[in-house]
Q: What sequence folds into this?
């Protein structure tokens, strides 16, 4: 699907239940148009991962996710050989069933190749949205390796050859900023910082994502969440928490927020013990007009 | 633009982006292409205001006035100071040095401090190790199928020679938090030297200075002149007779850096006399937070070197339960001990 303008894309995302702010819509539009990876940063729960998922739906592409963690390496990100099957196969070959000179070629055939997210994305090309999630958790060496794959949209496997994408996949990278990413990588990427939505937009987001919550409930939740964000909390609730909270309240049949209903369900919005204590202390002001 | 490096590549990207979107979205196109750090957004905003509304030149941010008087010198500047006679070699200095190692920093004369600084520059901090998730070939451990298969090729597919791999170990990071308030006096200058020596021991280590506020001094301390770094940092965070607000400063540290690798899983070394004018409850809360985020908390309090010192000051008493290692650090020997203790900090053994 081709988008002619950022408005067009914004509309398509909204139809797929994602309300992007103008900046994000423009950034995603440019990422598609200029075929550049998009680096998204922002507080947890503002929808960094979700935009990739929605984008895949809108484009009718496969969503391929690479979750980063400390120590992740090429074997987990790119490809790996299925060693146990290879060993087994090597043993059956032993009985002279095959010409020994061809053994290596047989053993490293495509049927023993285990495809990991990066290879899969390169093979799929334009038919894929590759989400590299929480890249800041991976080691710096991995970042350099990723940069190499992204730059060429190609993977070379010594035993098989080079696999190149005709059209590179759409790439979305996210970071929670536990460390600064390398400049070389950033230079290649478009960048967008996703802010918390305005209160009106948050009401709309809650209504869209949790349709079971009434307009009045959504407004109340958005207002309390905005107040919570103004408090000095260790972990502020993002739109993801607001949506979950509204869902939980709706499931309990709550129609308006009061001391009891907030107290019972506060764990959906606040996920840190010290924060909980602080919020419970300031409950009257939190709900006050 | 006000301090954001924009290379040709980014300019081309911006030009392409500007062409792809309408003029109304020019700002967003610039944001997506010209910057890639959250901190740079205000600078971009400013540049936009300047370019399209023209409100005059931007006001430069006021610079903290650094106290440039040098009382502790960079190691490189020291050799001339201490060796007027040509026989001032290591062996001749041995016994005075031995005495100096045990001398309280507060009692040192400026020339002795100079010598201390030189000795301190030799100090190397080494952090304890932790297991990572990366694996390396080893002589034992878990089976390494990849290499086993490679070797099996040589023996006709029979895996006779087996390979193993094991998780690697990596050194933990060290985080130094240095009190530069007035009550620390001579100590903070000496401890800044310690921080300077320590920072050169490991990559990715961080140092912060605090008084009434907190400031990052990693970069400044990585330079050749620790005294300038120290002077600049103390000018920035010390309000005249404002006292020390340890709790507030720790909170700032944890709020801004608590989720980053600087703090999480690190060995946090706090250098302070614990004379806090803030709320003890706040300090207690923040110390608890710190002890949960960092791997170990080490507190060096020069007052502890004084005979008969008890940690009775409200702040120190509040912080004490969350400290893993509590030492004096009031003289060179004590700092050397601390370096030793830090290197041996492991999961089980605690002093």
A:
């Amino acid at each position: 699907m081709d988008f002619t303008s950022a408005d067009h894309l914004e509309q398509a995302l909204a139809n797929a239940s994602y309300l992007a702010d103008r900046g994000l819509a423009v950034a995603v539009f440019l990422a598609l148009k200029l075929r550049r990876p998009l680096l998204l940063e922002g507080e947890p729960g503002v929808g960094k991962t979700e935009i990739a998922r929605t984008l895949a739906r809108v484009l009718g592409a496969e969503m391929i996710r690479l979750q980063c963690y400390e120590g992740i390496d090429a074997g987990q990100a790119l490809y790996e050989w299925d060693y146990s099957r290879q060993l087994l196969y090597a043993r059956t070959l032993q009985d002279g069933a095959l010409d020994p000179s061809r053994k290596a070629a047989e053993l490293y055939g495509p049927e023993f190749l285990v495809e990991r997210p990066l290879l899969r994305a390169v093979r799929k090309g334009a038919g894929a949205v590759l989400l590299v999630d929480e890249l800041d958790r991976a080691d710096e060496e991995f970042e350099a390796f990723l940069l190499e794959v992204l730059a060429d949209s190609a993977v070379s496997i010594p035993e098989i050859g080079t696999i190149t994408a005709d059209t590179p996949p759409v790439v979305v990278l996210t970071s929670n900023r536990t460390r600064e990413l390398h400049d070389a990588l950033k230079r290649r990427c478009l960048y967008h910082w996703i802010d918390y939505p305005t209160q009106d937009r948050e009401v709309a987001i809650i209504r869209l994502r949790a349709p079971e919550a009434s307009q009045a409930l959504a407004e109340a939740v958005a207002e309390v969440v905005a107040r919570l964000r103004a408090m000095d909390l260790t972990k502020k609730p993002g739109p993801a928490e607001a949506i979950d909270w509204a869902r939980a309240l709706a499931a309990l049949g709550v129609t308006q927020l009061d001391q009891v209903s907030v107290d019972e369900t506060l764990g959906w919005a606040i996920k840190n013990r010290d924060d909980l204590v602080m919020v419970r202390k300031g409950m009257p002001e939190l709900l006050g007009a | 633009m006000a301090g954001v490096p924009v290379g040709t590549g980014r300019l081309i990207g911006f030009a392409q982006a500007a062409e792809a979107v309408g003029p109304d979205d020019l700002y967003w196109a610039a944001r997506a292409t010209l910057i890639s750090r959250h901190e740079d957004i205000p600078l971009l905003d400013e540049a936009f205001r300047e370019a399209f509304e023209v409100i005059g030149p931007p006001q430069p941010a006021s610079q903290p006035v650094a106290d440039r008087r040098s009382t502790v010198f960079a190691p490189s500047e020291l050799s001339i100071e201490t060796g007027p006679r040509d026989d001032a070699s290591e062996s001749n200095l041995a016994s005075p040095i031995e005495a100096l190692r045990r001398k309280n920093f507060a009692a040192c004369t400026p020339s002795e401090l100079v010598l201390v600084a030189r000795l301190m520059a030799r100090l190397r901090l080494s952090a304890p190790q932790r297991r990572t998730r990366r694996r390396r070939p080893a002589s034992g451990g878990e089976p390494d199928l990849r290499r086993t298969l490679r070797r099996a090729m040589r023996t006709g597919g029979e895996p006779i020679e087996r390979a193993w791999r094991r998780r690697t170990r990596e050194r933990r990071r060290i985080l130094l938090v240095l009190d530069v308030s007035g009550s620390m006096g001579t100590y903070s200058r000496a401890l800044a030297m310690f921080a300077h020596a320590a920072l050169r021991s490991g990559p990715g280590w961080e140092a912060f200075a605090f008084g009434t506020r907190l400031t990052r001094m990693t970069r400044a301390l990585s330079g050749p002149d620790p005294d300038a770094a120290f002077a600049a940092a103390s000018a920035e965070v010390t309000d005249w007779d404002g006292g020390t607000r340890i709790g507030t400063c720790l909170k700032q540290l944890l709020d801004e850096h608590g989720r980053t690798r600087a703090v999480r899983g690190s060995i946090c070394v706090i250098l302070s006399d614990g004379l806090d004018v803030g709320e003890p409850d706040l300090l207690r809360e923040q110390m608890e937070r710190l002890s949960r985020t960092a791997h170990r908390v080490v507190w060096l309090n020069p007052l502890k070197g004084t005979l008969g010192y008890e940690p009775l000051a409200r702040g120190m008493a509040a912080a004490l339960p969350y400290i893993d290692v509590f030492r004096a650090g009031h003289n060179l020997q004590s700092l050397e001990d601390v370096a030793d203790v830090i290197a041996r900090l492991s999961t089980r053994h605690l002093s």
Observations:
- The CA atoms of residues 207 and 218 of chain B lie 5 Å apart.
